[in-house]
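Students often ask what a holo structure prediction actually looks like on paper. The answer is less mysterious than it sounds. You provide the chain, you provide the ligand, and the output is a string of discrete structure tokens encoding the 3D arrangement of the protein together with NAP.
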Amino acid sequence: MPEPLKVGLAGLGTVGTAVVRLLQHERDKLVARCGRPIEVVAVSARSRGKKRDVDLKSFRWFADPAALAADPAIDVMVEVIGGAGDPAKHAVETALAAGKPVVTANKALLAAHGHKLATLAERHGVALNFEASVAGGIPIVKTLREGLNGNSFHRIYGILNGTCNYILSRMEADRISFDECLREAQRLGYAEADPSFDVEGHDTAQKLSILASLAFGTKVDPAAVYVEGISSITLADLDAAAELGYRVKLLGVAVKTEAGIEQRVHPTMVRRESAIAQVMGVTNAVTVDAEGLAPITLVGPGAGGMATASAVVSDLADIARGVCTAPFGRPAARMTAIRKAPMQRHEGGYYIRLLARDRPGTAATIARRLAQRQISLESIVQRHDVRAQGEGKNSGPAAKPGDPVPVILITYATSEDAVQKALAAVRRDRVISGRPQVIRIEKN
Ligand SMILES: NC(=O)c1ccc[n+]([C@@H]2O[C@H](COP(=O)([O-])OP(=O)(O)OC[C@H]3O[C@@H](n4cnc5c(N)ncnc54)[C@H](OP(=O)(O)O)[C@@H]3O)[C@@H](O)[C@H]2O)c1
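The corresponding structure tokens follow.
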């Protein structure tokens, strides 16, 4: 039997234990595909005594992941600890500096230090593979880095957070409020005890920044991403979307524009018949718009031990075969600082839901403010029938005469700046109650 690829595994949680199981289960097939076995020989985690559903007896134990990374008896390190800082960062740097390839599932680490780590990997001539860091089991990193190597990209967008997609799907299907869905997602283990990282869009932003870097050759820069979460979405928005032929999804979108690269995460109206609109529950999806190709949409599990382990093992298989690709698909020295397109210059259609005060002149005032910013309307709907809070069966009492009337506007393509300024003027005119709801429409 040829020499095995000896793996040091740092992290034995959901992903780490699934990697151990998958490597054991697929052992013979991996030998056939890679020409050599892939074997875990040493592991590291925080607590040695913790009960785990894999047998660790045959692996050497390291209390310190960096010591594992430096161990001459391992050929490659898998980092599935998580977090942008140490011990994950130090362990990855130690392995790369020792000339060992690294496989990681850690989006936070790559978003914060992707370019620096890619430079280090290249300096030492080793692979840094991170398929598992974005969209779990969907091979989107490889698709961008290798599969579409000959194409330039116009836009890449996707559903990159299963928790948010689960909440939006459940709200729509079962007419339950955001808060109720979130509590349920927490009960089912789809959402963290502190869900803000997911529902406020930051998890999606980290993943998007990695995809944008792969697609556009720019240094990973999560600070350049405009981020808005889903907590303001109501059943009234989902109902209106359905009536108008749309569905609301939390999308991460990276697009090349004349003003630079636009990276944004926000609730988005997508055409109901589009591929991405069909993706429900915790499933993820990514659509790639590349030159010379019709859009490609990849759909699949974005998280979970086995789905993520499948990406980790695929990265290990490449290393076992001797494949070493530049981490972001081009030499790190050729990755450029991102030219960030300001959000104010974003152009597209908008859904706007206002609570218009029921008094003469309101409609004319709103129309005037929009016209002043050259915003044209594709449709305008007044919803006299909805209940006071617009929340369907969980709502308050039926609306009374004199209550504010929900008005839904769909604009033709315009700019973010024009919409924000027109709505600020409408608010100053005191013809609406509360804050307008604004959801961007993505052409797809
Ligand atoms: N879970 C998913 O579905 C998923 C999907 C895609 C990507 N990822 C990424 O995969 C990585 C791992 O996620 P996970 O869900 O497997 O996390 P997890 O279940 O929390 O496991 C983390 C592991 O790291 C170990 N660890 C924590 N601090 C450590 C330290 N100071 N020294 C040594 N070991 C330490 C823990 O040890 P103990 O077990 O002893 O506490 C645990 O084994 C993260 O980067 C995550 O973003 C996860």
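The pocket of NAP is lined by residues 11-16, 44-47, 50, 65, 80-82, 87, 105-107, 132, 136, 303-304, 308 (CB under 6 Å).
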